[in-house]
Known about the structure:
alpha/beta; five-stranded mixed β-sheet; eight-stranded mixed β-sheet
Amino acid sequence: MNVHIMHTGKVQIDRALALKEKGWHPAPYTGWLRSSKKIWVPVSTYLIEHQKGLLLLDTGWHEAIRTNQRKHLGTLAHSMFKGVLPEGESIRELLQTRGYRAEDLDYVLLSHLDADHVSGLGHVQDASSILVSTEEWTVANRGMRYNKTMWKGASLITFDFEESGLGPVGRSYDLFGDGSVTLIHTPGHSRGMFSVLLKTSRASMLLVNDTGYCPQSWEELIVPGITVDDLQAKQSLRWVQQQASEVDYVFANHDTTIKPMTITL
Ligand SMILES: [Zn+2]
């Protein structure tokens, strides 16, 4: 199994969006009135060449942010974070560089529906199956957090976690039924967020997406700035902390120390 860690540009966020802060500010993660706290972090996507299919985990930024970011993200989101997508780094371009087209993808896995994970969906909507958890989908079209235009025209398929006993809440979904690709429910940052555990006879890798933003998140149990449930978010991080001592690799989506690379498991 080959895992290509790719960056579809970067996102500028408030530091408190990555690592929750407590203080006078009611919502520090918005970055409002806190201009000196901004940091740039990568927006990762993962292309997984598996013998049973070609998988993409999350889609990164859409090329539309190069021309009209405010329109693509919406005014509220745009006031909280900014994206940058250099030439050659959209998911369409990254697939092309590797000789693939969107229709070659067997699965697009959406860890959750925040903009920086689903923005590029328009580039890969010709994939055979686009999966999102039922928990995530039930809240997707409600409230202000998610931008519904990002999945307009795409056919998303929902899947149900099984009571497997795996993961922080004992729920997971075994994609191929052989334990090689397991989507593990790691709620807290969002309702239906999952991490992906990849296993071969030689090695294992955990992709935690936004369950934690960097190793400091699970080493010190610091939840992300945005959570739907702080206790669950911490429970998920505790599980990641324990996994980190068992698997060969752990990667967070927005870790500034991770460079694009390919790892063969
Ligand atoms: Zn994210």
